[in-house]
């Protein structure tokens, strides 16, 4: 078990060194592209939902308030 733990720790150390020194992604990806990705995602989401709400013909289960009225009360006959 000791050998396994030592090997696992060594692999973890190697991964940290690889990420620190050999990373191919720039460190400032979010500051460089973050706003563009956020805005394009918001536009895409809004466009898809706009299409779904207006063009697909889905009948949404909206509230029946002010669309239904109660039936008149019937007095029980004796």
UniProtKB/TrEMBL annotation:
Keywords: Membrane, Mitochondrion, Mitochondrion inner membrane, Transit peptide, Transmembrane, Transmembrane helix. It holds the Pfam family COX7B. The chain crosses the membrane at residues 33-53. It comes from the Eukaryota. The keyword Magnesium does not apply. It is found in: Mitochondrion inner membrane. It is a single-pass membrane protein. Pathway: Energy metabolism; oxidative phosphorylation. Belongs to the cytochrome c oxidase VIIb family. This is Cytochrome c oxidase subunit 7B, mitochondrial.
